[in-house]
């Protein structure tokens, strides 16, 4: 098994840029127009409901992603401590994936975008888990590291 990824500012910046672009694509795609449904003549209540539900799930997924990335950017810019990041910078591990029966009612383009956001989010969850694995078994940073952070924060 490989060692967990040690996140750095360049990785976070690249992911942040990717997350913003993907968020913009999501915003543009879910303008709630009928073209997002699988078939224009099939603009039924079920298709509109599927579009609304998947739009909500997908935008929520991207908001969580961008929030996680913003916290990590703040950490690498020394705006928050590692302790603050560990406490407040968690990513939700179990956001529900899209419902296959609802996805079938949406256009292929929208389906592909939703799957892309799910893969992006899964990457962030894996990175967060790997980053957190660097700590002691109890999930706490070593005591000396916490003390150094407190001193740095108080002095710096």
Any overview of this molecule?
This protein is mainly alpha-helical and 156 residues long. Helix content is 65%, strand content 0%. The chain is elongated. It has a single domain, classed as Helicase, Ruva Protein, domain 3 (Orthogonal Bundle), CATH 1.10.8.
Features:
single chain, 156 residues, mainly alpha, Helicase, Ruva Protein, domain 3, 65% helix, 0% strand
CATH level-4 homologous superfamily:
Protein of unknown function DUF1465
What general outline do the C-alpha atoms trace? elongated
Largest sheet: none
The oligomerization state is single chain
Count of discrete alpha- or pi-helical segments spanning 4 or more residues: 6
**SSE pattern:** HHHHHH
Strand content: under 5%
CATH class: Mainly Alpha
Task: Give the proportion of residues in helices.
Answer: 55-70%
Give the tally of structural domains.
Answer: 1
Provide the residue-averaged pLDDT.
84
Q: What's the gyration radius in Å?
A: 19 Å
CATH topology: Helicase, Ruva Protein, domain 3
Specify the structural class.
mainly alpha
Total strand count, please? 0
Q: Which CATH architecture would you pick? A: Orthogonal Bundle
Low-confidence stretches: none
Distance between the termini: 38 Å
